[in-house]
Design a protein that fits this description.
Shape: globular
Number of helices: 14
Distance between the termini: 50 Å
CATH architecture of the largest domain: 3-Layer(aba) Sandwich
Strand order of the largest sheet: 5-2-1-6-7-11-10
CATH topology of the largest domain: Rossmann fold
Helix content: 40-55%
Radius of gyration: 22 Å
Largest sheet: 7 strands, mixed
Structural class: alpha/beta
Number of domains: 2
Length: 327
């Protein structure tokens, strides 16, 4: 039987992640019993203390165990940390780090849900490895953990038993992935149907809203960003931008990448596609009209870039997100 520890972070964290993870994983044993198979998972809530007070006192979570009581576990689940100050949230939970590292050395796997990735990354286990998190926290995560390869467009990442999931409710896809790994595809499909989770969904790209990384102090790069955002419909080139802000091309590209985590070309593309997304959601312009308005003249190039960034074609995106009449 596999032992699963759902840790309860100090400070504030996602009640949904705690309750839903416990419920969905507990149902695995029910499915197995219906097939005359032995139970597989033992799930416990684990804390630094006997209980945690969350959501400014609205909820109290009583733990099954404290970390001092757990000598051996097979999987540690880290719910999303919450709050605007991730540095403080991570610091509040440093009491878990040495325990998680010891459990990992003893064979335990670790899974972070959404912003639980910040605590997972603080262990050092993600150094030079891939990770995902909520897309809205991507810039913040990169600043705190520059040695981690963040892949925010992915729903889940498996780095040899170090798992991470994308934003908010996409953690359910990671749970299905783990259920399939531990109990088989048939049980994962049962869980998918029972909890109505879209199995095999692997990207959060369609939901990403591009947020420019501007909390840096490189003034020429900030000016270049602002110029791109105001003039995205024009044909912009790296050489022209470099000349405009009195920088050499290589210097501009190096500083732009360092400040924004995007190349100049990637940034221009993302600003254009974000404008195209808004137009597809809110206007009745056809795809070609949208394309021209955001500064593309090549249909193939527009569609290829749009799909690369969103994971969908322009038509698929409009079908998924177009505002309905009366809204």
């Amino acid at each position: 039987m596999k032992h699963i520890s759902i840790i309860i972070p100090e400070g504030d964290c996602s009640i949904t992640h705690i309750e839903a993870s416990h419920q969905i994983l507990s149902e695995v044993n029910v499915f197995l019993a219906g097939l005359d198979r032995d139970p597989l998972l033992k799930i416990e809530l684990v804390g630094l203390n006997k209980e945690s007070v969350l959501k400014k006192g609205f909820y109290t979570v009583h733990h099954d165990k404290t970390i001092a009581d757990i000598n051996k576990t097979d999987l540690i689940i880290i719910p999303a940390l919450q709050g605007s100050d991730m540095e403080t949230a991570v610091q509040l939970n440093q009491g878990y780090v040495s325990w998680m590292l010891a459990q990992h050395r003893n064979g335990a796997e670790i899974a972070s849900l959404c912003l639980g990735s910040f605590l997972l990354a603080s262990t050092g286990l993600l150094k030079n490895k891939k990770c995902t998190t909520h897309w809205s926290a991507a810039n913040h995560f990169r600043r705190m953990f520059p040695d981690v390869e963040l892949v925010p467009e992915k729903i889940l990442i498996d780095e040899n038993g170090i798992y991470s999931s994308g934003g908010a409710l996409s953690f359910t896809n990671l749970l299905l992935y783990l259920i399939e790994k531990y109990a088989g595809r048939d049980i994962a499909i049962l869980a998918s149907k029972t909890f109505m989770i879209d199995i095999d969904r692997d990207r959060q790209s369609p939901f990403i809203i591009f947020k420019a990384q501007k909390d840096h102090e490189d003034e020429p790069i900030l000016k270049a960003q602002n110029f791109i955002e105001k003039n995205y419909a024009e044909k912009l080139t790296v050489d022209e931008l470099a000349s405009m802000f009195a920088l050499g091309r290589r210097n501009l590209e190096r500083r732009f990448k360092k400040a924004t985590s995007n190349t100049v070309v990637e940034y221009i593309q993302r600003v254009k596609i974000e404008a195209a997304k808004f137009s597809l959601e809110s206007s009745y312009d056809n795809v070609n009209e949208v394309m021209y308005k955001v500064g593309y003249n090549d249909t193939k190039a527009f569609r290829t870039t749009f799909r690369k960034i969103t994971g969908l074609s322009p038509i698929q995106y409009r079908t998924k997100f177009k505002q309905k009449v009366g809204q």
